[in-house]
């Protein structure tokens, strides 16, 4: 696949970038996970939600089924859910600077999320502004339940991007489209995430940024998946600048992540 064919099939390749940054949305770009926030505050609550997260992390239930269980507990009309999140969810304080740097350096940002696309786009518009439209968003969606409207109580449900997958949205499918490109075209791939929705992406990128104190680090340490730790996007920006400028390598950055974990600096 040449550059032109890659650009036609993969929008992030249109500018022939040397690097692409893929990222989870909830709890990664934002300070709070919007789906957890809905579940904890107007769904069945934090205790059961956290139990489902652990069940998923320990392979006793699929992410798809645990996430559907969470979202089914949120019965407010969909438009009210979106507004509720727009009013409450905050952006990671370092993301705006990172995103501006990425635009200036031809590093496309692709959001791979297990959340719902309308919610993500509404939050990005509010938190990042008009330039957020330059981000490609690949996520799940929502639809009316049979015989109902999305704007009535109990009227909507999650619609998975890959319903046949235990992940609901198998992020590895997108990532492999890029990682399988010929060497003379393939960009260096970064990915940032925090939790159980990112397990399908963990092995599919050149450098994984795993958020300090969250479940993704537990998984990576258990499965020997290389990673580097971040507390917020100022850490990611600094590390990416060093890599883009040739001051360090992806391999060195990943090794530093393991060392931070072993030294107790990963928050786990």
UniProtKB/TrEMBL annotation:
Keywords: Hydrolase. SUPFAM superfamilies: HAD-like. One of its GO terms (molecular function) is phosphatase activity. Pfam families: HAD (PF12710). InterPro entries: HAD-like_hydrolase_phosphatase, HAD-like_sf, HAD_hydro_PyrdxlP_Pase-like, HAD_sf. NCBIfam families: DKMTPPase-SF, HAD-SF-IB. This is 2-hydroxy-3-keto-5-methylthiopentenyl-1-phosphate phosphatase-like protein. It comes from Paraphaeosphaeria sporulosa.
């Amino acid at each position: 696949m040449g550059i032109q064919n890659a650009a036609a099939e993969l929008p992030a390749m249109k500018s022939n970038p040397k690097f692409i940054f893929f990222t989870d949305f909830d709890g990664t770009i934002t300070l709070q996970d919007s789906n957890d926030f809905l579940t904890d505050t107007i769904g069945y609550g934090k205790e059961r939600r956290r139990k489902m997260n652990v069940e998923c992390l320990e392979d006793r239930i699929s992410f798809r089924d645990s996430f559907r269980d969470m979202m089914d507990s949120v019965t407010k009309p969909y438009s009210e859910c979106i507004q509720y999140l727009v009013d409450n969810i905050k952006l990671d304080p370092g993301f705006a600077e990172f995103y501006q740097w990425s635009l200036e350096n031809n590093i496309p940002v692709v959001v791979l999320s297990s959340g719902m696309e309308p919610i993500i786009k509404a939050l990005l518009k509010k938190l990042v502004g008009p330039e957020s439209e330059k981000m490609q968003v690949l996520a799940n969606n929502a639809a009316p339940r049979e015989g109902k409207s999305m704007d009535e109580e109990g009227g909507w449900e999650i619609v998975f991007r890959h319903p046949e997958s235990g992940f609901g949205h198998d992020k590895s499918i997108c990532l492999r489209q890029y990682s399988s490109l010929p060497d003379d075209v393939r960009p260096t791939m970064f990915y940032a995430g925090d939790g159980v929705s990112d397990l399908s992406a963990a092995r599919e990128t050149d450098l994984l940024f795993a958020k300090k104190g969250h479940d993704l680090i537990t998984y990576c340490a258990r499965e020997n998946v290389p990673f580097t730790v971040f507390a917020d996007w100022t850490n990611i920006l600094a590390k990416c600048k060093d890599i883009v400028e040739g001051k360090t390598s992806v391999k060195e950055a990943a090794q530093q992540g393991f060392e931070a974990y072993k030294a107790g600096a990963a928050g786990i």
